[in-house]
Write a structure and sequence with these properties.
This protein is an alpha+beta fold. It has 2 domains: 88 residues, no CATH class; 129 residues, Gcn5-related N-acetyltransferase (GNAT) (Aminopeptidase, 3-Layer(aba) Sandwich), CATH 3.40.630.30. The protein contains 8 helices and 11 strands. Strands 1-2-4-3-11-5-10-9-8-7-6 form an 11-stranded mixed β-sheet, sandwiched between helices. A hairpin with a 2-residue loop joins strand 7 and strand 8. The chain is elongated. It starts with 5 loop residues before the first helix and ends in a 7-residue tail after the last strand. Keywords: Transferase. GO terms for molecular function: acyltransferase activity, transferring groups other than amino-acyl groups. This is GNAT family N-acetyltransferase.
Amino acid sequence: MSLFSPIVTEFWRTQFANAALFHGDTTFTIAVNPELEEGSRVMVLKTTDGRGAAVLTPTMADRLGLAAGHDLTEATFRRKLAEAGVILNGADFVFYFSDGARQALTQEKPEAGVGQLTDQDGAIFSAFQSSASEQDLDDAYVELDHWAVFGSFDDGRLVCAASMYPWEDAPIADTGVLTLPSYRGKGHARKVVRAISRYACEQGYEPQYRCQTDNLASVALAKTAGLTLFGTWEVISPDSPD
């Protein structure tokens, strides 16, 4: 039985659906899907069980010189990407709540000092943003006009905020979180991530947490918040040639 909910497994199955299998073995598969959007014309997913899957458009398969039935290892596939000048974005870790952790999350009581933010909190949120660096704001991508926004307060001041936006045509809600530097390491981010994730579950969405694999602080937060690593995900970089 899967560790994760059917929403998660079905979501990732559909990412590689409607695709013609070029290569497949017990550890790595390559498939071609003409319906992929431009920004995802090459994707690679590796799950924690050691399995990997790549999907790409027919145009990209032609550029790489792939043909059905070729014996292609993951290393060979990545070498062909490099030879064709195709660049993948740095890999993201993807985290979800396991079924057990999700059930515990939905049953816990809200913690003091954490609450949902609305348009009425514009001044408070602006003050929060003005106290953060441009780099932190860009990396976190936490916005008041997102689908859901939660914050943690310290002595009446907003010191940590998280926002979510659902993915198009999927019951998955992506999470961003930002804590002001002087308030980090005090549990604010953990409380906010759990609060907004609980809200997403109540609304019928599966909380998703992503971060770069070298962002050790973000990885630690995901684990502290009760999330479990699902795998790594890569998509083609905008810097790749058309």
